[in-house]
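Tokens as discussed.
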């Protein structure tokens, strides 16, 4: 899985250039128009919007400092990107999380929050309740996209944080799988 994730991240960073991912090397895929706008594979880099997945695993050391130090789940493209317009925005469609229970549960009344920019940025999904992070067993949770209107933040990373205080104890790791859309304006 780690090797796949590394390859996936590299592909995203390279924005799937035709030389690496040509139509002749990838089998045909057809959309019926019901699930999404049809974009020919060879034009994906030039599309104004496309869906991506990213998997990020947080260590217990990162989780224990989430109030003081939010962790970036989706980094910015930076100014050196030639395949993304000057203004782009991430629209998060949902985040699925799995806690891999160690031997000590986290403590504290902390929801996990997912935001643009930093711990005070606009929320991009619903929160994951403190019962998830404080779990004493392997478990899954899902945070759907926000259901009310909001103003996306251009050229901004997506972070995870806790709002109240750092968890006091705990030694589990958490993996997040983020489904998001990259929209260039």
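Sequence:
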């Amino acid at each position: 899985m780690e090797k796949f994730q590394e390859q996936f991240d590299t592909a995203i960073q390279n924005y799937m250039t035709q030389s690496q991912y040509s139509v002749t090397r990838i089998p045909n895929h057809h959309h019926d128009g019901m699930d999404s706008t049809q974009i020919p594979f060879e034009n994906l880099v030039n599309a104004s919007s496309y869906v991506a997945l990213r998997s990020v695993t947080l260590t217990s050391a990162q989780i224990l400092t989430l109030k003081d130090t939010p962790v970036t789940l989706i980094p910015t493209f930076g100014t050196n990107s030639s395949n993304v317009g000057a203004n782009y925005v991430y629209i998060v469609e949902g985040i699925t999380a799995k806690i891999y229970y160690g031997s000590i549960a986290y403590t504290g009344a902390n929801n996990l929050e997912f935001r643009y920019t930093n711990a005070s940025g606009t929320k991009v999904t619903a929160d994951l309740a403190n019962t998830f992070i404080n779990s004493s067993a392997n478990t899954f949770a899902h945070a759907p996209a926000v259901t009310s209107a909001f103003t996306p933040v251009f050229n901004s990373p997506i972070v995870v944080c806790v709002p109240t205080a750092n968890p006091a104890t705990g030694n589990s790791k958490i993996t997040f799988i983020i489904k998001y859309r990259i929209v260039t304006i």
